[in-house]
Protein: Xanthine dehydrogenase family protein subunit M
Amino acid sequence: MKPFAYHQPDQIPDAARLLTSIEDSKLVAGGMTLIPTLKQRLASPVALVDLSKLGSLKGITDDGATITIGAMTPHAVVAASKLVQTKTPGLAALASMIGDPAVRSRGTIGGSVANNDPAADYPAGVLGLGATIVTSMREIAADKFFLGLFETALQPGEIITAIRFPVPLKAGYAKFKAPASRYALVGVFVAKFADGVRVAVTGAGPGVFRVPPMEAALSSNFDPSAIAAIKIDTDGLTSDIHAEADYRAHLVTVMAKRAVDAALS
Structure:
């Protein structure tokens, strides 16, 4: 690991200024992705900007129609939150499935969403619930935030401060995880709202995506049987040492049915 400067600002504007003024600097939240990357010498930033002192970025609030989760809130806190468990149990369940206890204690929702790993869990919850990503500059709808493999709509110096989730009528998450990493080979989040259903898939391709045929079928009949016969096209799906594209396509339907079951229960 190469030497780097280390900054720990206690105000969001200071963090943004450091990020834009120091070329090739990186934000660090929980460090669950960045630290291993540094150890493997896959990244060599000249400076790290640590967000851990930004207490305003932690916590969960409720205004009735939405739940807002601060970007620096750890996965374990989301999983254990009585508010999230009551209002959006599918999101609490998703957080409880991330990694292992150490990862859930250190990893943060903002870091996961900003990194946009193609096999991460939170992007499915964010897109599936139609959440809004609140940043230091603006608000971004989930449908416009995730652009591709490790790519988001964030601009240089832009920092996620919170994520605002609409409260669904029902929601559930199911994933088939890789045994070692616990990342999703395929994970599916299903959310039912008064105006329809959203289905978001992670792990199956280079980024999280929605499945309109399943959304239409579940909007008419919110039951696993409604999507049992829907086949997912393998075009664009990932084939790697863990699973071929056709197996991942099969898993999307299986996990979607289980997600609906979880939402109904």
Summary: Residues 1-52 form a domain with the Uridine Diphospho-n-acetylenolpyruvylglucosamine Reductase; domain 2 fold (CATH 3.30.43.10). The radius of gyration is 18 Å. The longest helix spans residues 245-264.
